[in-house]
Write a structure and sequence with these properties.
Layout lengths: L1 H39 L5 H17 L5 H19 L2 H20 L9 H22 L6 H11 L5 H19 L1 H21 L5 E8 L2 H12 L4 E6 L6 E10 H14 L4 E7 L13
Antiparallel strand pairs: 1-3, 1-4, 2-3
Helix pairs in contact: 1-4, 1-5, 2-3, 2-7, 3-4, 3-6, 5-8, 7-8, 9-10
């Protein structure tokens, strides 16, 4: 009963963390839209960009002012259904809440122009946009739209597709350029590129780290790895050249976000262990992706 209550507290704490980071990210994104994106007339890519493009088109050509929320929610409906089936119910429901929160925040947050310099808007708006998306992803949810695609490929195919999404967003920007002028479209590309690089910097789940662990307690360390991150390891017999004593070397690949946790657990199990941490440029094969959602 005590173990069961502990697990319930952990699940509750994780859910609170997911929602807290997601809501903070959605609020930051809404403020960014009202302070940078609208001021510069930019299109941030993804479904938010498509929503703004539709709003601008109706306002410019038909004189009709449309609210952000209904358009955004309608566009996100199809990828949300796909995510529900392919990624998971919890992740999709949490993301749906973030989509709704972002839409509502965008409608109620007042316009707050900070600068009129279009280059500053493109660079800093992109940085803030990438930080908001990363905050949601780190927490275990997303901002919806193309994020569904990125998370699907990360979990199911173990591939980072953010640069491909950037190229897909270029289609929206080309359409915006044809309709409203190329200057804003080109500045939007700067915004998108900066946002993508910020995501690469902050969200490291797709990066892999190789651990080489020399120890005299291989089973204890293996147990810590399995319990902590659910990864297996390969045991290699070794000999200490100076002492000529038998050793064991464990080979293990984890994500970069797991590496610090694993190394700490390893040293707790064997304070004398030697750990070599190597960045892995390419990895192919079966890899357990820890689910945060």
């Amino acid at each position: 009963m005590k173990k069961h209550s502990t697990l319930e507290r952990l699940d509750l704490g994780r859910e609170i963390r997911i929602l807290a980071l997601g809501l903070i990210g959605s609020l930051i994104m809404a403020i960014n839209i009202k302070s940078f994106v609208h001021t510069g007339g930019l299109y941030p890519g993804g479904f938010n960009g498509v929503t703004l493009l539709i709003q601008t088109s109706f306002q410019r050509f038909l004189g009709i002012s449309l609210p952000f929320s209904p358009i955004s929610l309608a566009l996100n409906a199809i990828p949300a259904i796909f995510s529900f089936r392919a990624i998971g119910k919890r992740f999709t429901l949490n993301t749906a809440l973030i989509i709704v929160a972002t839409s509502v925040f965008t409608d109620i947050v007042p316009a707050m122009p900070i600068t009129q310099d279009i280059l500053l808007i493109s660079v800093f708006g992109g940085l803030i946009n990438g930080a908001a998306i990363s905050l949601c992803l780190i927490g275990g949810t997303s901002t919806g739209g193309t994020d569904f695609i990125a998370v699907y490929f990360l979990e199911k195919k173990n591939r980072d597709v953010w640069n491909f999404i950037l190229m897909g967003n270029a289609t929206v920007l080309v359409l915006a350029g044809l309709l409203f002028g190329w200057d804003k479209a080109l500045y939007s590309i700067i915004f998108q590129f900066t946002s993508t690089q910020m995501i690469h910097l902050l969200y490291q789940e797709h990066n892999k780290i190789t651990l080489f662990i020399v120890t005299e307690l291989p089973y204890e360390i293996y147990q810590e790895i399995m319990v902590t991150v659910h990864h297996s390891a390969t045991e290699i017999s070794a000999t200490g050249m100076y002492s000529q004593e038998p050793k064991t070397m464990l080979y293990c690949v984890v994500s970069s976000t797991e590496a610090k946790i694993v190394t700490r657990k390893i040293l707790e199990a064997d304070p004398k262990a030697l750990i070599n941490v190597i960045k892995t440029e390419m990895f192919r094969g079966r890899f357990h992706q820890t689910r945060h959602y």
